Amino acid sequence: DAKTTQPNSMESNEEEPVHLPCNHSTISGTDYIHWYRQLPSQGPEYVIHGLTSNVNNRMASLAIAEDRKSSTLILHRATLRDAAVYYCILRDRFSGNTPLVFGKGTRLSVIA
Amino acid sequence: DAGVIQSPRHEVTEMGQEVTLRCKPISGHDYLFWYRQTMMRGLELLIYFNNNVPIDDSGMPEDRFSAKMPNASFSTLKIQPSEPRDSAVYFCASSSLLRGISGDTQYFGPGTRLTVL
C-alpha cells in the first residue's frame, strides 16, 4: 500500500467543523482512500472511503483533491465523542480483502 | 449483529504461561485478521485467514505465536510461552469479499489487553 502522511495531532472546539488532512503523493490510479478512526480503548472503526469524487455519509465527508495526491476528512460538527486517532489508508481496489496498513494517524482532541 | 466478539477482554499472566485469545467474527464474513497494537509499533498485522485458511502469517513474531481457525465462526491466537514483550492489545477483525454496502470494510472487535508480568 502507498504511504500516507498525516499531522500527528489536531485540536478542535466542540461543535465546530474539523478538517483532517492526508497527503498521499504516490497514490496510484487504482487506490481507494479509506479513513478509519480509533476511539479510546476501542478497536478501529470504518469512517468513509472514496476513489475520485467527494463522498458523504452520516459520519463525515471526504474531500479528494483533483490530482488525488491529498484528501481531507471533514467532521461537520465535532463532538466530544469524536476525540480519537484518525487513520488515512490507501487500498488498491483490485487487492481484495488484504490487511490494513496503519500509520501513526492524527490524534484529534475536542475541547468542550 | 453483535459485531466481532473477543475474549477475554483483559488477561494478566506470568512470563512462561500459555495464553489463548479468542475471536468470533461477524457471521457470513470470510476474512479474519489478527492485529497487535503497542505504543512503540502501533497497529500491525499478525496473520489473516480467508475461508478458514491462513493466507499470510509473516507478521507473526516468532514460533511462540500460533493461530488457528477451525471453523468460520471461531479463531484463536495462542502464545506459548508468553514473555513480557508480548504485552499489547490484540485485535481481531473480520470482513467480507462481497462488494456492495460493506465493500471490503474491516470490522474490529474491542480487543484483548494482554499483560505479561
Describe the structure.
The complex is a heterodimer of chains A (112) and B (117). With 112 residues, chain A is an all-beta fold. In chain A, strands 1-9-8-3-4 form a 5-stranded mixed beta sheet, with no helix packed on it. At the A-B interface, strand 4 of A face strand 4, strand 5, strand 9 and strand 10 of B.
Tally of individual helices of chain A? 0
The portion of residues forming beta strands of chain A comes to over 45%
**Overall residue-averaged pLDDT value of chain B:** 93
Q: Largest interface, with Cβ-Cβ < 8 Å?
A: A-B, 15 and 25 residues
Q: Helical segment tally of chain B?
A: 0
Helix-strand category of chain A: mainly beta
Task: Kindly provide the radius of gyration of chain B, computed on alpha-carbon positions and rounded to a whole number of angstroms.
Answer: 14 Å
Strand content of chain B: over 45%
Low-confidence region ranges of chain B: none
Annotation, overall tally of beta strands of chain B: 11
| Unreliable residue stretches of chain A | none
The main sheet of chain A comes to:
5 strands, mixed
Looking at this protein, list some descriptive labels.
heterodimer, A: 112 residues, mainly beta, four-stranded antiparallel β-sheet, B: 117 residues
